[in-house]
Amino acid sequence: MKFIKNFFEKTEPLVQKGGKYHWLQSVHDGFFTFLYTPKSTSKTGTHIHDYIDLKRTMSIVVIALLPAVLMGMYNTGFQHFKAIGELASTGFFEIFLFGLIKVLPIIIVSYVVGLGIEFVFAQLRGHEIQEGFLVSGMLIPLVMPIETPLWMIAVATAFAVVFGKEVFGGTGMNIWNPALVARAFLFFAYPAQMSGIKVWVSLSNADKVVDGFTGATPMADAAAGNITYKAADAFFGLIPGSIGETSTLAILIGAVFLIVTGIGNWKIMVSTIAGGAVMGLILNAFAGSAGLSPESAVYFGIPFWHHLILGGFMFGAIFMTTDPVSAAQTDTGKWIYGFLIGFVAILIRVINPAYPEGMMLSILLMNTFAPLIDHYVVKSHIKRRLKRVIVKEQTA
Amino acid sequence: MSEPLFSKKNLKLITDPLNNSNPITVQVLGICSALAVTAQLKPAVVMSISVMVVLAAANVIISLLRNTIPNRIRIIVQLVVIAALVILVDQVLKAYVYDVSKQLSVFVGLIITNCILMGRLEAFALGNRPWQSFLDGIGNGAGYAAILIIVGFFRELLGSGTIFGLRIIPESFYITNGGFYANNGMMILPPMALITVGVIIWVQRSRNRKLIEN
What we know:
- The structure holds two protein chains of two kinds.
- Chain A is mostly helical.
- Chain A has 17 helices and no strands.
- By secondary structure, chain B is mostly helical.
- Chain B has a domain at 13-152.
- Helix content of chain B is 63%, strand content 2%.
- Chain B is built from ten helices and two strands; from the N terminus they run H-H-H-H-H-H-H-H-E-E-H-H.
- In chain B, helix 4 crosses helix 7 (115-123) and helix 8 (130-160) crosses helix 10 (190-207).
- Chains A and B meet through helix 6, helix 7 and helix 8 of A and helix 9 and helix 10 of B.
């Protein structure tokens, strides 16, 4: 492995100011610090550097995403062979390979486009490459339907990086989660390719499908009043849906990893799930009320915990809400922020027929309100402390 | 009048609003109509011409009357002048380009409340001679038109695949016809118009750095 380090050290003079390839400096620096600990130390005063910098943080989140990625690949193949009726005669590796071939190009497109834009901006603005995209680049493929054309992924990624992040000043300054900006962009720009019954299961030009195959997600079915899923399938991730969102089990493995390493905030995860559960219970309470259409009555009445394992709820709750940049920063704020995300997500999902999945919109909405929540939490904190000061003054 | 009609100073009244003091991208006026009528190019052009005509004519009329208008009621006088002109323009549009007039719907009437008009009347026509006021009206109308046409061009091209209703992106490219392409539905929605205007502001300010406020 020494030769890689040697290569970086040898090429360094070339990319310095005045060197032959000076326009590659931020790329050089980016790859070097990704692979090795940076050599630079602070020039003034005493600073203690934690070894876990932004790059390491982001790498840990990517590792936490791996179970969902692998499960997504397997499920892609599983849904394909199930749809064409060859599930029983196909081996595990063949199923996985099919998914791998389908999913890998999406991941590559997302990273190439996103990192390309990051490199250009870093060089133009003369700062280091920001690592935030390491996670976004993995999240973007995971929230897409499997049949999204690659050029749409590219356009959405470019939009998300430029308008979701760079216009605000880059990593750490964005208001919204960039991966969700990409998905929201596609959702509103190309609705035909992002919803409906043709995008969730890859048929790969197979000319025959089994009888009774519709291609609809369980949530779309549930909204129409048919319960077509088994809770166990939804939990293990063997239902149609966006690539990485289906398997609650894989996501929970990632969640444990995030919490143990201290990267993900458990308060937001717990409060989001609580919010979703409370809304589910409220809907259950209204399931029998008069005036509901029969379809709605079915959807209102599904057990509240089914909402947590269906669709993108769990994926959003673990990986999207906990984005440290766009979430609320205060501890009390995190509880409020998470709870409202879960609450609103299920509300949109069940009540609004135009949006079969509410998690994306709910997180984007609460991202917008996160600074406001923080503002009032801090204000009430100051008020409480101030009262104490005044009381002390009076008694003294 | 010793000054020639197209002296350097007068010409600046036309060229300035095109760039350094553009009513939309620099003064950020008239945004509402810029977002509403630019989903296609044709209404955007018609709207631009209407605003330019109303603005130039209103500027001249107010400038002629400027020494007789009592200061306390000047706003209402300006409104009456603008409203009268807008009604005239609306009638002309209905007579000659009825379909576009239908598309523009209330936005022709809303020229009355367009901030650019009030802004120019207050800031320029009340203190300058008719000829200069006319040039100022044309200039600001052109500045407004330039942005509307740029925004309308990109929104129609990417949102509908057409320019002035003529097909630019061939039908055979579309997914429904076996191709790979699809129109960007978000371009038709107002939020994307706002982002497009934002991009124009971004490009303009990165080329013209003295416009960047701190």
